[in-house]
Amino acid sequence: MTENLLRIISGLNSGLRLSILKLLCENDLTSQEIFLKMKNKVLYRQYIHRELEILRNAGVIKKYYDEETNKLYYKITCHEIIINLSNQTVDWKLIKS
After folding, report:
1. What angle do the packed helices 2-12 and 15-26 form, to 10 degrees?
2. All domains of the chain, ordered by start, with CATH?
3. Quick check: 51 and 14 in contact, CB under 8 A?
4. What kind and span of H or E run contains 72?
5. pLDDT tens for residues 27-85?
6. Neighbours of 81 (CB within 10 A)
7. Three-point CA angle 69, 32, 20, nearest 5°
C-alpha cells in the first residue's frame, strides 16, 4: 500500500503535471493538444509525453485510441484523491469512466 501512495504522491509532485490534470478535467486530449495549450510553459512535446506517462503510471490518467479520429487520447480517471496519512491508504472518487 505504501508503494501505491508513493507512486501517486510523486506523480502529483509537479506544477506541470497538475496543469495537465487541470486540462484533462475539462476534456480528453491528445499529447499534441496538451502541448499546444501549454506551449508557453513547455519547449518540447517530449516533456509533455514524459509527464503523461508519469501520471498514467500513478493511475490518475489513462490513454485510449479513438478509431474514428485515429488519435491517442488521454483522459482523467478521477477528480478527487483522498489520502489518509495515518493508515497510508488512497481513496479515488471516480467521476469519469
Report:
1. 90
2. 2-93 (1.10.10.10)
3. yes
4. strand 71-76
5. 999 999 999 999 888 888 899 999 999 999 988 999 999 999 999 999 998 777 777 77
6. 17
7. 115
